[in-house]
């Protein structure tokens, strides 16, 4: 670089080098953005059937609805809406402990967080069954789906199970009527057993 | 100073740098150094990630009854007993393991050797395929504790602990031993086997 009459002169080689470096940066930034993978992939499952998830097996079982939660004969909670109880079972045949500690119910435009704070957690060779309870708006239950996954502080790429609970626009009224005044008795703590 | 070629010393100072092979060699040298630095960095990071960041631990199994030293203390597995009933020492109630599982009771003698502030009594049963089971019956009250309170442990004296595990019955015949976990270290974990 040299000065001539107060103006800064940059040699052509350096200018080309800087431009090439900038072009490389822009190219790699565009490439990273274009190839930016999603945080998770959905693993779609069917109620009552086994879903492979995070080296474990998940079975989303019975679904019950009601308006009161009862524990040993005592009403623990009552809602003007509707409680949905989903029974789920986690089996871990693999070598690592699996904890599915994040879940919610989804419709096309609603997300319902879990009313309880239960998580499915099992050590290698064990299975655990839990009752997951959600409070929902009875008017917004068409195509209600359960999503469940392993959340952690440092979250990498992960799988998220998604299971349709069988409530559709056609049968939603039946579910609403079934819930009216009905009591649900979710298990206070999950049941654990070792795989045979 | 007189210059017969007509150049002045100042003109020499602002003359364009050498464009010859020497300058090209320097550029190649710099590029090589940068590439080398990147390669060294990537190699070190990969080695660290493979060995240090994995949660799938590394273990070393010791001979039966042989004690190991870790966290400034000596750990010796006195016994590892399988049972299907554990008695709560305060209530007398019997606890049973889940279906298809058994309890494993590990008796460990811990002898504090130094004033290491990072002494923890953290154990896990190591099974086939590096499966591990941590203690999960802390709610059962027992005569012997399962922790190592440093303020109560005299250096040189034996501090017995008892740790209870639940393990699937199907793996009982293939267990490797009792792993001594050091929560603040990523070093290879010693695995004790009963005498």
Describe this entry's structure for a reader.
The complex is a heterodimer of chains A (196) and B (195). With 196 residues, chain A is of the alpha+beta class. The relative contact order of chain A is 0.20. The longest helix of chain A is centred in the N-terminal third of the chain and has 23 residues, at 12-34. Chain A has helices spanning 12-34, 172-179; strands at residues 2-4, 7-9, 40-46, 50-53, 56-71, 74-91, 98-100, 102-106, 111-113, 120-122, 126-136, 145-149, 158-164, 183-184, 191-194. Chain B has two domains: 9-53; 59-193, Sandwich (Immunoglobulin-like). Chain B is built from two helices and eleven strands. Chain B has a five-stranded mixed sheet, with no helix packed on it. A four-stranded antiparallel sheet of chain B has the order 2-3-6-9, with no helix packed on it. Chain B has a two-stranded antiparallel ribbon with strand order 4-5. The N and C termini of chain B lie far apart (94 Å). Mean pLDDT of chain B is 85; it is low at 1-5. Chains A and B meet through strand 15 of A and strand 8 and strand 9 of B.
Cα gyration radius of chain B (Å): 31 Å
Q: Which regions of chain A are unreliable across 5 or more consecutive residues at pLDDT < 50?
A: none
Task: Kindly give the count of domains of chain A.
Answer: 2
Q: How many domains, in number, for the residues of chain B?
A: 2
Task: Please give the share of residues in helix of chain A.
Answer: 10-25%
Instruction: Write down the overall geometry of chain A.
Output: elongated
Number of strands of chain B: 11
Q: From N to C, what is the helix and strand string of chain B? A: HHEEEEEEEEEEE
- How many helix segments of chain A? 2
């Amino acid at each position: 670089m040299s000065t001539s009459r107060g103006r800064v002169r940059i040699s052509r080689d350096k200018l080309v080098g800087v431009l090439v470096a900038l072009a490389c940066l822009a190219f790699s930034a565009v490439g990273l953005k274009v190839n930016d993978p999603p945080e998770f992939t959905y693993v779609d499952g069917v109620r009552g059937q086994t879903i492979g998830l995070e080296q474990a097996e998940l079975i989303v079982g019975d679904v019950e609805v009601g308006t009161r939660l009862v524990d040993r004969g005592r009403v623990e909670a009552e809602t003007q809406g509707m409680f949905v109880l989903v029974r789920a079972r986690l089996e871990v045949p693999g070598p690592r402990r699996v904890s599915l500690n994040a879940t919610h119910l989804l419709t096309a435009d609603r997300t319902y967080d879990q009313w309880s704070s239960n998580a499915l957690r099992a050590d290698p060779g064990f299975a655990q069954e839990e009752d997951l309870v959600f409070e929902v708006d009875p008017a917004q239950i068409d195509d209600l789906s359960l999503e469940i996954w392993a959340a952690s502080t440092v979250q990498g790429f992960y799988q998220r199970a998604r299971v349709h609970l069988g409530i559709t626009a056609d049968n939603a009224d039946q579910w609403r009527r079934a819930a009216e005044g009905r009591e649900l008795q979710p298990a206070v703590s999950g049941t654990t057993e070792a795989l045979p | 100073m007189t210059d017969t070629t007509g150049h002045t010393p100042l003109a020499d100072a602002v003359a364009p740098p050498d464009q010859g092979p020497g300058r090209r060699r320097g550029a190649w040298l710099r590029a090589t150094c940068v590439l080398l630095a990147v390669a060294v960095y990537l190699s070190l990071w990969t080695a660290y990630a493979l060995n240090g960041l994995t949660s799938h631990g590394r273990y070393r199994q010791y001979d039966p009854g042989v004690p190991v030293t870790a966290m400034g203390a000596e750990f010796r597995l006195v016994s590892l007993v399988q049972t299907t009933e554990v008695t709560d020492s305060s209530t007398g109630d019997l606890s049973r393991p889940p279906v298809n599982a058994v309890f494993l009771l590990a008796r460990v003698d811990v002898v504090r050797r130094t004033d290491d502030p990072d002494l923890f009594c953290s154990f896990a049963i190591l099974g086939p395929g590096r499966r591990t089971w941590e203690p999960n019956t802390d709610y059962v009250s027992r005569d012997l504790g399962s922790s190592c309170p440093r303020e109560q442990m005299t250096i040189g004296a034996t501090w017995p602990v008892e740790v209870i595990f639940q393990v699937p019955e199907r793996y009982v015949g293939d267990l490797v031993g009792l792993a001594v976990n050091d929560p603040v270290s990523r070093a290879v974990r010693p695995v004790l086997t009963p005498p």
